[in-house]
Write a structure and sequence with these properties.
Layout lengths: L2 H15 L2 E5 L8 E5 L1 H5 L3 E5 L3 H16 L9 E6 L2 E7 L5 H4 L1 H6 L7 E5 L15 H6 L12
Parallel strand pairs: 3-6
Antiparallel strand pairs: 1-2, 2-3, 4-5, 5-6
Length: about 160
Amino acid sequence: MAADAEEAKTLADIEAYGCHILYVLEEGDDPPFAYSVGIEHNFDAAELVVVGLKPEISQSIVNEYCRRVREGELFQPGQRASGFVKDFDCEFGAVDAAHYPEYFGWDIWFYDGHDFRVMQLIFPNLDGVWPWEPEADDWFRARQPLLGTAPSSQT
């Protein structure tokens, strides 16, 4: 699909559904992720990113978030909410703007810069352990990096 066709599809989805969802495949040690474009424009709520889940689950979570903010529900960093991942509460986390270039290229295009907000939907593992808890294993932490702080500098 040509860039102009991709841009037209993105804009049409934002108009029709409230957002466009992009899914970025796993690459090397970097886990897959999905994120929204257009939610802040349409509903004055932060865009959403989900890291480490399969495409169908990630897209379902972003769609549910879009539906709920469209209906007026408000979510804030640090807030826990149910109904996104079956049988588990999830927590919303802030996203540091230093991650924007690596993760949110289409948002940067749509908003013509970095003037938009993003929250991360963070989920526990199947045992109910959060990625920041000492019991979380290295695989789970790597699969769901927390984007609330600036990335470590690579040397």
